Amino acid sequence: MSDTINQQSLQAFLDALASNAPTPGGGSVAALSGAMAAGLLSMVCSLTIGKPQFAEFEEEVRGVHEQSEQLRATFQQLAQDDIEAFAHLAAAYKLPRTTDADAASRKAAIQKVTREAADVPLRTARAAANLLPLCTVLANRCSRLIVSDVGVAALLAHATVRSALLNVDINLSSLEDGIYVRETRAQMEDLTVGLEEETEGVMQMVRSRINQ
Q: Is the entire prediction scored with pTM above 0.70?
């Protein structure tokens, strides 16, 4: 399709996802799950801002809304970036390898674009980790009638981090730059430290509000 992923209808995207085309794939799905999480947080903010009973939190919720909208735009771009990174990788694999010089050039190109392909989901995971603190803020600053949406956003954010890092992992396995691989794996580990506890903390607040 000539349209970017963000210009497609939901039906077109799902049909493409279910087809034998290599993209969109897991990297784009991870990014879009992050976009949906951010969208849910924006919705909760929009339904909270201007309500007299939450006036004391107005400024804070507006700040969350600004951040969630920025992240939503970031995720949508990352979904497209993932598709483009795969296209670059596919093109590199099609480079000629008739001569030794050709083979060396092809190998270098593959290594370069594979690194790019790892960077995109790493950025997705990093952005998704930034959603969870926003969930923590909103869980106690919105109507209990919509607090479940905060919980869904937290679970999607958690899934986005994990699924994006899986896409980083598959690309790292093909890279020969040991320093880059080690540094990236360290960043991946940092992103998962406390992830389960932070997500569960949000869910505990959400369940508590639901059961009030």
A: yes
